[in-house]
Specification:
The protein has a single domain (3-236, 262-301), classed as Rossmann fold (3-Layer(aba) Sandwich), CATH 3.40.50. The protein is of the alpha/beta class and 302 residues long. The chain has 11 helices and 10 strands. It is 40% helix and 16% strand.
C-alpha cells in the first residue's frame, strides 16, 4: 500500500484521517516539529521558517496531504495573527513544493485543505459553487485564494494531480468550536448568534475524512471541491437542532453581534456571516454522505 505523508497530522482532522488511513492498510507518516521516527506514527521534522525538513519523509511519500495551518478562531486577528494564519498555510505549501522540485521522486498527488471562507464572510441566499469567484476585500477569502494557489503550483510546476477541499464547519466531539456551542446549550442557554439568519455550512468529521480518502484513491478527482454536507442550515436552525438533540430548551435571547465582535474582532465575521455552499460537485463525483443532515451529525457527535 501507499505511504501517505500528512502535515498537520496532530490536529483534529489529521488524527482522525490517520486512523482511517491505517485501517485501510496505508502507511502514514507525519511532518512535525520534532523527529520521532520510531513512534507509532513516524514523525519527521520540518521547520519552514528555517527551511529545514527531513527529506526522507518526502522520499517515502506517495501522496502528500497538506492540513497544516494556524487555528483561525483561537484569538483575535491581530496583524501578527493574520501573518501567522497565511504563512502557516501558504509558505508551508511553497516550501514543500521547492523541496519536491529538488528531488527525483515526485508525489502521485497533493491534497490540500482549504475553506469555504473562500466565498467571503457575507450573508446571502445565493448558493456558492466551486465556479464562483472569491470575495473582494475579505481577509479569509484572500487567504484561501493564496492557499489554493500555492497548492495548485504542484500541478502547474510538477504535473502532480492536485485537489483542494474547501472545508465547512466540522461537527465533531473533538472540535473545540463545536464544544463552545454545546457548553451553554447544555445549561439551557442555547441561542442564535447575532441575527441567526446567517448560514452555517457544515460537515461531519468522518465525512470530511472519507472525502480525503476518496481524493487520495480516486485518480479522476482534480481541482477544487466543496467539503460541505448537502443540508443547508442557518445558525438559528443549527442551534435549535443542537438544543433538541441535547434535550434542552431553546428560548434564550439572541447573543448580540457586538459582544462577539468585542471578543473576537474581525474574526467574529466567521460566526456572524455565512451563505449556503453547494455539495453538488462532490456528490456528482460519487461521494455518498454518511451524515447528510445536521441532526444526524450532531447526534453522533454528542
Amino acid at each position: 500500500m501507499k505511504t501517505i505523508l500528512l502535515t498537520g497530522g496532530s490536529g483534529m482532522i489529521g488524527r482522525r484521517l490517520t486512523v482511517m488511513l491505517r485501517e485501510k492498510g496505508y502507511s502514514v507518516i507525519w511532518l512535525s516539529r520534532e523527529r520521532h521516527v520510531n513512534a507509532e506514527i513516524p514523525r519527521y521534522r520540518w521547520n519552514y521558517h528555517k527551511n529545514e525538513i527531513d527529506r526522507e519523509a518526502l522520499e517515502q511519500a506517495d501522496v502528500i496531504v497538506h492540513l497544516a495551518g494556524s487555528n483561525l478562531g483561537e484569538e483575535p486577528w491581530t496583524r501578527r495573527k493574520k501573518q501567522e494564519i497565511v504563512e502557516s498555510r501558504v509558505q508551508t505549501a511553497k516550501f514543500l513544493l521547492e523541496t519536491c522540485q529538488s528531488m527525483t521522486k515526485k508525489p502521485d498527488a497533493f491534497i490540500s485543505a482549504s475553506a469555504v471562507g473562500y466565498y467571503g464572510m457575507q450573508t446571502s441566499s445565493k448558493i456558492f459553487t466551486e465556479e464562483d469567484n472569491p470575495a473582494k476585500n475579505d481577509f479569509l477569502s484572500r487567504t484561501c485564494k493564496k492557499w489554493e494557489s500555492a497548492a495548485f503550483a504542484f500541478r502547474e510546476e510538477l504535473g502532480v494531480r492536485t485537489v483542494a477541499l474547501r472545508t465547512a464547519f466540522v461537527i465533531s466531539k473533538d472540535n473545540e468550536a463545536f464544544g463552545k456551542l454545546k457548553l451553554p446549550t447544555g445549561f439551557g442557554l442555547g441561542s442564535p448568534l447575532g441575527t441567526g439568519r446567517q448560514y452555517l455550512p457544515w460537515i461531519h468529521l468522518d465525512d470530511l475524512c472519507r472525502i480525503y480518502l476518496k481524493a487520495i484513491e480516486d485518480n479522476t478527482m482534480q481541482g477544487v471541491f466543496n467539503a460541505v454536507s448537502p443540508e443547508s442550515v442557518t445558525n438559528a436552525g443549527f442551534m435549535k437542532t443542537l438544543a433538541a438533540e441535547m434535550k434542552r430548551p431553546f428560548f434564550f435571547p439572541k447573543i448580540p453581534a457586538f459582544l462577539l465582535q468585542l471578543l473576537l474582532g474581525e474574526a467574529a465575521g466567521m460566526i456572524l456571516e455565512g451563505s449556503p455552499v453547494s455539495s453538488e460537485k462532490i456528490l456528482h463525483a460519487g461521494y455518498q454522505f454518511l451524515y447528510p443532515t445536521v441532526a444526524i451529525a450532531i447526534r453522533d457527535s454528542l
